[in-house]
Design brief:
This protein is mainly beta. It has helices at 35-44, 134-145, and strands at residues 10-14, 16-20, 23-28, 48-51, 54-60, 63-67, 75-78, 82-85, 92-100, 114-117, 120-127. The protein has a single domain (11-144), classed as Rossmann fold (3-Layer(aba) Sandwich), CATH 3.40.50.300. Residues 12-87 form the HPr kinase/phosphorylase C-terminal domain.
C-alpha cells in the first residue's frame, strides 16, 4: 500500500490542483506531462488555482482537502514565462483525480475508474492533457459524477 492510500496519510503529493464550482480537481502526471498547462487552460475557463505542481492533501472526515504548500501558494509555472502570480483558493475538497497519460484513454470505461487517496476512493479520469478537449472532458466528468444532466454550458 502506498502512503497516499493510507487513511492516515496527510502530506504533499506531486500534482497540480484547481477548484471548479467549489470542488477540487487533482491533476497528476510525470514531469512535462502538462499538469500546469492543463491547469492554466481550466483557469482560463473559470477554474481557480489551488496549487501548481505540488498539492498538500489531508483527510477531513469523508472528504480529502487539497491546498497549496505555503511556499508556492498563488504561483503557477508557465513555460516560457517562469513562475507567474495567480489568484488562488485556500482549499477545496478533492472530487476528481486526473491522471495524465500519453496514450489514448479507454473509450468506454464503465463505471468511471477510481483510485484510493487517504483511504477514500475517488473518481479517476485518465486523459491526454494536451488534447484541446481535455478541459471540457474534466468539466463533463465533474457533472457526470454529480449526476447532473441537461444541456451543455461551460462551467464559468
Amino acid at each position: 500500500m502506498s502512503d497516499e492510500a493510507d487513511p492516515d496519510f496527510a502530506g504533499t503529493v506531486h500534482g497540480s490542483s484547481v477548484m471548479i464550482e467549489g470542488r477540487g480537481v487533482l491533476i497528476r502526471g510525470q514531469s512535462g506531462a502538462g499538469k500546469s498547462d492543463l491547469a492554466l487552460r481550466l483557469i482560463d475557463r473559470g477554474a481557480t488555482l489551488l496549487a501548481d505542481d505540488y498539492t498538500q492533501i489531508a483527510r477531513e472526515g469523508d472528504a480529502i482537502f487539497g491546498r497549496a504548500p505555503e511556499t508556492i501558494a498563488g504561483l503557477i509555472e508557465v513555460r516560457g514565462l517562469g513562475l507567474v502570480p495567480m489568484p488562488h483558493g485556500q482549499s477545496a475538497p478533492i472530487a476528481l483525480i486526473i491522471q495524465l497519460i500519453d496514450a489514448p484513454p479507454e473509450r468506454h470505461p464503465d463505471p468511471l475508474p477510481s483510485c484510493k487517496l487517504c483511504g477514500l476512493s475517488l473518481p479517476l479520469l485518465m486523459l491526454n492533457g494536451f488534447e484541446a478537449s481535455a478541459p471540457i472532458k474534466i468539466e463533463l466528468a465533474l457533472r457526470h459524477i454529480n449526476g447532473q444532466t441537461g444541456g451543455w454550458e461551460p462551467m464559468r
